[in-house]
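In this section we turn from sequence analysis to structure. A common task in structural bioinformatics is to predict how a protein folds when a small molecule is present, because the ligand can shape the pocket around it. The inputs are simple: the amino acid sequence and a SMILES string for the ligand, here glutamine. Study the lines below before reading on.
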Amino acid sequence: MKGYLILEDGMVFEGKVFGSLQEDTGEVVFNTAMAGYQEIFTDNSYNGQILVMTYPMIGNYGINSEDIESNQPTIKGLVVRELCKTPSNWKSENCLDDYLKYHNIMGIEGVDTRKLVKHLREKGTMKGIITISLDHKQEQMEKMQEMDITTKNYTGDVSTEKPYILAGNGPKIALLDFGVKLNILRILKSYDCHITVLPYQTKAEEIMKLGVDGVFLSNGPGNPQTLMPAVENIKKLLHHKPMFGICMGHQLLSLAFGADTYKLKYGHRGGNHPVKDLITNKVYITSQNHGYVVDEKTVNQKELVITHRNLNDGTIEGIQHKYLPVFSVQYHPEASPGPMESKYLFQQFVYNVQHSKEAV
Ligand SMILES: NC(=O)CC[C@H](N)C(=O)O
């Protein structure tokens, strides 16, 4: 069946629909990773977004029940150049078409994704809708223009409703769940951490009562400035517990230290973003997925050190407190998908937690 991606600015891309026929609206963003589509679709940080994959064929190695970053994809739509309907891989259990049908997500294939991405790079990300008809284009455009994605809370949909524990014999970690990727939990488990995963609105006082040794701030969807109550909570914990934040966690931690964040024109989403560690001068190739970034001008450098920088556009990729065992990165050391070379940051967190515990 013929389908269309209509952008907020009126531009239309034609293709063929697949997956479910459930029309949906979202911010149209693109990811340049060459592999790992299943991890990307199930990364909760994409909640509310229509995803464009720049790699020209998607679906060729199918879908399996292992390579997931959450139990269900929360993307609002998928745009690809070519959908592979005959997957081949020893792990494959399902094809992408059926997987999207099952999760009620509409996809569109046969789209000139190169032209689309060039447009988004030039004009910036914008809202879009995948639909099977152009009959309501004007209304749909007006509706999209009215929708404010920068003030909407996307976290409630993806954070755990109730606390849960992943038992371990190592350091006790409270993880504030803003839409956590499962690989973060897998890696913390590999250090034998005892992890209590908490709803994102859990109060600092309740976290202190748990008697944990460290606090982890997860990744997650949406604008960090929609989560100011969480920022207030983080402020209360800063001087008491070692902390590590990834992506949304990094943005919230920076807000808690009084910095500001802003929205990038088209964000960073892919598996090969170069980041320089400004302390060691080493360059890491990193996995990224973010639309917002910390504003360098607002970072209080009497208190914080800027530890990492993106080599493509110079934006901040990591901060560390000068005296407290508190640090965060904008990129994804848990990869999934992408390079694993920044995984050592988890070890640094575990080290901080163990040493602060000994010092008490
Ligand atoms: N992966 C993330 O945690 C993304 C953080 C935030 N939603 C952003 O887009 O910048």
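The pocket of glutamine is lined by residues 45, 219-222, 247-248, 289-292 (CB under 6 Å). As an exercise, try to locate the residues that line the glutamine site and compare them with your own expectations.
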